[in-house]
Amino acid sequence: MSESFPRLSARTRRFTLGVPRGFTISPDGGRVVFLRTKSGTDPVTCLWELDTETHVERLVVDPRTLHADEEDLPPEERARRERSREAAGGVVAYATDAAVRQACFALSGGLYVVELASGQTRALSTPGRVIDPRLSPDGRHVAYVCDGALRVQALDGGHDRALAQPESETVTYGLAEFIAAEEMDRMRGYWWAPSSDALLVERADDAPVHLWHIADPANPDRPPVAQRYPAAGTPNALTELFVLGLDGSRVPVPYDEEYLVTATWDSHALSVVTLTRDQRTMRLFSVDPATGATSLVREDTDPAWVDIVGGVPAHLDDGSLVWVAGSEGGHRLIVGDRAVTPPTLQVRAVLDVDHDSVLFSASGDPTEIHLWTWDGHSLLPVSTRSGVFSGRMSGGVGVLTEQSLDDEGVSTTVVRRDGMAVPIPSFAERPGLDLRVSLGRSGRRELATAVVLPTWYEPGSGKLPVLMDPYGGPHAQRVLNRRGAFLESQWFAEQGFAVIVADGRGTPGRGTEWERAVLGDLATPALEDQIDALHGVAEQYPDDLDLTRVAIRGWSFGGYLAALAVLRRPDLFHAAVAGAPVTDWRLYDTCYTERYLGNPEAQPEVYEKSSLFADAAKLERPLLLIHGLADDNVVAAHTLRLSSALLAAGRQHSVLPLSGVTHMTPQEVVAENLLLLQVDFLKKSLGGATPPGSGPAV
Prior knowledge:
- This protein has a domain at 437-686: Rossmann fold (3-Layer(aba) Sandwich), CATH 3.40.50.1820.
- The longest helix has 19 residues, at 668-686.
- It is an alpha+beta fold.
- β34 (397-403) and β35 form a beta hairpin.
- Residues 66-86 are annotated as: Disordered.
- One of its GO terms (molecular function) is dipeptidyl-peptidase activity.
C-alpha cells in the first residue's frame, strides 16, 4: 500500500520540502542563490547557486558535510523560526554581501561564511551561539547577535567585538521583539549602512512585558518556561534605535511611537517607519546617521488602522520614494508623490526595486496574486496566466514563482535579460491527490469560495455531509488559485464530505472597506459570512449538500471560528473541531488584537462581544478542542479556560492536549495523526458518505 496522504503530508512539511526559496540575484543578473532541500522528504536545507548564462546549478553548502545538521539551536533562534513558521532545518536563512560573492549563515548556533564561487566554507569562532548573521555590504565584516549582544567580526583577521552589550537580562540588541516578528513580519533587528562602517540597531527591553509561564504537564520534572507575553491592553517591549559605528560611536535615533515597523538603509536615505499604539497613524522618517535627527517624510492616517505592507520604503535610482498606501478604497503603489496604480488593483507587497523599475504583487480578483512592474512610465503585467505568483528582480533578471490549480507544486523560473526562461527544479513530493475544486462566489456578499467534492462522487447520487474549512480571520486568505491551498480539504472530501472554504470580510484582496468591516467585532461578521457561504453553496448544489449534517474545523483564528459556530449557531453547525483557538481576546497579543478591538480597558464590551466564554452554556453539539501545550502564540490557557467554562456549565466536550507541541505542530507523528483523529471525530459526530470500496482513511 502506498504511503497515506496524512503521513506524506507530515513527512514533507505539507509538501514544502524540496521547493526552491529564499532567492538572491547578483547585481549583474548572472547568478541566483537560493535555498532548497535535496528531496521532498529531506528536512535539511542546503544553499545552491544557479549560473543564469550556462544554466548550471551547483550545490554550495550541504550542512551534513559540516557535521552540523543536527539542530542544537539557541532559544532565540527557535523562537525566530516559530515566528517565521519555519518547518525545515539546516541553512534556513542566509545573507550576502552587496556583490553576492559571499554568504553567511548560522547552523546549530555556529557562524559560517562561504565563498560562493568556490564553495569554500569556514566556521568562525564566536563567544557563544549565533543568531541572524549578516555580512556588511563590502563583505569585510559580519555582524551577528550573541547572548543579546550585537557583535561584529572582521573577516580578514578574525577580530571580534561587541558593539552593544545588554544592560540586563531583559535587553537585547539586534533582535526583533515578539510583536515585530509575530505581527509585523519584521524578522530582523539591525541594518548595515551602505558604506559598511555603521549599523542601525534596535534595542529591545522586555522588562515592562508581563511574565507568563508555559509548563509541560507531561514532564513535571521540567521547570516551566518563562515568557514575556504582551497581551492586549498590557505593556509592550520598549524599543529604541541607535546608529552604532565600527569606530565605537553610538548615536540615538529618537521616536515617540509605540511600534517600530521597519527600517531601510540605502544610498539615498536611512529610513525608519513607526506606528502608534492605536495603529491609526504611520510615520516615515528620514534619519541623519551622524546626529540621529529625524525628518518626517510621510504620515499616513486611517480612522480604523493603517496597514503594514512589505517591501517599503524603497527608492528608485533618482531617489524617488516607493511606498504603498490606502487611497480611494484600494491599496495603491505610490512613487514619488503620486499613486501609479488604480484603486481596483490591490497591491500586496513591493518585492524589489531594480534601478528605475518596481516589481510588486497585486490582486484584481482576490483569488489571484499577480506580478506587475512600474517602469517609471507605465504599469506592465509580468504574470499572465491564472494563479498565485511571487518573484524577485535584480540586474534586469527576474525570478518568478508560480502556483495554480492546474499544476502541482511550485514552479520557479529565472527570466534572463534576453527573455530566455531557465527553470529551477523543485524536488517536492507529489501529494498523490486529484483535486476536484471549484472556485467562485457565493452568498449575498459574493464571498470568494471554494467547493471541494470527492473525486468519486457522482452529482445527485446522494447528499453529502458538509465540512466548512475556513481560516476566516482578517489579513489572511484560504481561497487562492493554487493547489497547495486545498490539499487537506481535498483529503477530507475524499473521506465523504463536501468541503466549503470561504473568505469573509476582513480578508485581503478586496479593498480597504471590505477589510475594515471587522473593526470592533471579530465574531459577528466572520460567523455571518460562513453562514452566508454555506447557504450560497447549498443553492448552487441543491442535490448534493446535506444541511442537516454540517461540521466546521479550523486552526488558530479558524479554531476560534469553529468553536464560535457551534456555540452561537447550533441550528446550522452540528459539530466542530477547534485547533489552537483564541477563546478570549484579552489573552492574545497587543498588536493584532488592538488593531481590530482597541484597548480592552477602554472598550471592555467589544471584547465581551468577541469572547467565547459567555456562550459556554449554549453548547449542545460535539466540540473537539485541540491545543499544543508549548504554544507560545495562542497559549493553551485559551482552550483550558474555555474547557473550564464548559465544565462549569455542564456541557460535554472533548479536549486533545498535545504535549511539547507549539502553534506550528511540526512533529511528523503529531501532524499525521491529527488529521486522522479529526476525520474520525467528524464521522462519528455526523456520519459521512462512504466512498466506493472504502476502508480506513488514507
